[in-house]
């Protein structure tokens, strides 16, 4: 019965071109044309146009909304930070709170801050960051990072969202901070 049904569908596909296109597998090297565009990454990936878009959209002020390091995830009040990105340099600051097992309602605070030189590597689709000066105390003591230390992040950037990922190590999610509009003065009334 299944064989007869399969044979009938295949014969119909050969006879009717619209059905033939339904049975063919879509090409794997590009997204389906009818699928909505992914807001985080625009097609085509790996082009100079995409790299330029990423370089331009990265610039600005970003507020940290969540951080994952190893197995620990920090969100909301447990995670605060900013990243300021200019044409070639960026500055990151992060503060996290982790509950202690010793006393209820007490937390261990960790921080990280640094200034870095950055570039986008088109061939590997990575954000490459070189340390100018950075310090953290996640290990319990102030740990200064050697200048020139290099890190690479997978980057997804949209108009107002940014995710930086070091697979297996860390993931940082940000939202763009927009400037506060200048208030318009109230018109003066005559007496």
Description:
By secondary structure, this protein is of the alpha+beta class. The protein is built from three helices and ten strands, in the order H-H-H-E-E-E-E-E-E-E-E-E-E. An eight-stranded antiparallel β-barrel has the order 1-3-4-5-6-8-9-10. Strand 4 and strand 5 form a beta hairpin. Helix 1 crosses helix 2. The N and C termini lie far apart (94 Å). The relative contact order is 0.14. The N terminus is likely disordered.
Keywords:
191 residues; alpha+beta
Main pleated-sheet profile: 8 strands, antiparallel, barrel
How large is the share of residues in beta strands?
Answer: 35-45%
Taken in chain order, the helices and strands follow as: HHHEEEEEEEEEE
N/C terminus separation = 94 Å
Gyration radius, in Å: 25 Å
Number of H- or I-type helical stretches: 3
Looking across the biggest beta sheet, what order are the strands in?
Answer: 1-3-4-5-6-8-9-10
Task: State the helicity in percent bands.
Answer: 10-25%
**Average pLDDT metric:** 79
Broad structural category: alpha+beta
Number of strands: 10
Shape: globular
Given as residue ranges, the uncertain stretches (5+ residues, pLDDT < 50) are 1-39
Helix-strand blueprint:
Elements: H1 2-15, H2 17-23, H3 48-58, E1 60-69, E2 72-75, E3 79-85, E4 89-99, E5 107-121, E6 126-136, E7 143-145, E8 150-157, E9 161-166, E10 170-176
Antiparallel strand pairs: 1-2, 1-3, 1-10, 3-4, 4-5, 5-6, 6-7, 6-8, 8-9, 9-10
Helix pairs in contact: 1-2
């Amino acid at each position: 019965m299944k064989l007869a049904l399969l044979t009938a569908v295949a014969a119909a596909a050969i006879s009717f071109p619209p059905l033939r296109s339904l049975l063919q597998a879509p090409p794997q090297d590009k997204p389906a044309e009818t699928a909505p565009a992914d807001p985080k990454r625009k097609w085509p990936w790996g082009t100079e146009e995409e790299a330029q878009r990423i370089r331009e959209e990265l610039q600005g002020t970003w507020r940290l909304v969540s951080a994952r390091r190893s197995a620990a995830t920090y969100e909301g009040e447990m995670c605060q930070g900013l990243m300021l990105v200019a044409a070639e340099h960026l500055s990151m600051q992060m503060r996290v709170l982790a509950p202690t097992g010793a006393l209820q309602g007490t937390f261990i605070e960790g921080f990280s801050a640094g200034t870095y030189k950055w570039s986008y590597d088109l061939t590997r689709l990575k954000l490459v960051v070189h340390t100018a000066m950075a310090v953290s105390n996640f290990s319990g003591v102030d740990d200064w990072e050697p200048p020139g230390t290099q890190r690479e992040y997978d980057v997804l950037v949209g108009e107002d969202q940014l995710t930086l990922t070091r697979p297996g190590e860390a993931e940082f999610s940000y939202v763009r901070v927009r400037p506060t509009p200048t208030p318009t003065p109230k018109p003066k009334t005559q007496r």
